[in-house]
Amino acid sequence: MASTSDDYDKLPKEEREAREKADREREKVEQAALPYTWNQELGEVDLVVRVPKGTRARDLTIVLQRKKLSVSLKGQEPIMAGELCKEIKVDDSTWTVEDNQAVHIHLEKLNNQQWWENVLTHHPKIDTRKIEPANSKLSDLDGETRGMVEKMMFDNQQKQMGKPTSDELKKMEALKKFQDAHPELDFSNAKIS
């Protein structure tokens, strides 16, 4: 039962926690029913598809396309097949067979700043708002986003120490340059805001 976030925010804390727990349990059951397990980081998705013991690479037909994935044993119905929820970098995506009983598939996301809700569009979705990245680093972010995050972190740190933020420092620097360029002006009683 989906509800709007406004309704959800109005619920008492216990009800919100109960609903979140129920959603997590439902998600866990839905994901466990899939013919594969998967996890992701911002830039990649990794899947493990179980295959019959003794399976070799030559026994498999794997299709990795920009927006499509299919895994099957030759001459049989696919174990999984469908449209990927987001596009991948085909040349950077790979697959291998491990211990002749599992296919490991590594998908490089085309958009490495976005969490996937599912692997194939027709499979159950996860709530990406609940993802807590295990080891996301500033270096994983694109330049503009990284700069913005670093500025926010710096400003927050400055505020906690009672020091000027980056914007305030820029204003102070501009004023000092102006004062240095115009020594004939008296700024001793000036109020700067």
TrEMBL record:
Residues 7-30 have a biased composition (Basic and acidic residues). The keyword Membrane does not apply. SUPFAM superfamilies: HSP20-like chaperones (SSF49764). One of its GO terms (molecular function) is unfolded protein binding. GO terms for biological process: protein folding. CDD domains: p23_NUDC_like (cd06467). Residues 31-120 form the CS domain. InterPro entries: CS_dom, HSP20-like_chaperone, NudC_fam. It is found in: Cytoplasm. Keywords: Cytoplasm. Its main location: cytoplasm. One of its GO terms (cellular component) is cytoplasm. It comes from the Eukaryota. Residues 1-30 are annotated as: Disordered. PANTHER family: NUCLEAR MIGRATION PROTEIN NUDC, NUCLEAR MOVEMENT PROTEIN NUDC. Required for nuclear movement. May interact between microtubules and nuclei and/or may be involved in the generation of force used to move nuclei during interphase. This is Nuclear movement protein nudC. It comes from Crucibulum laeve.
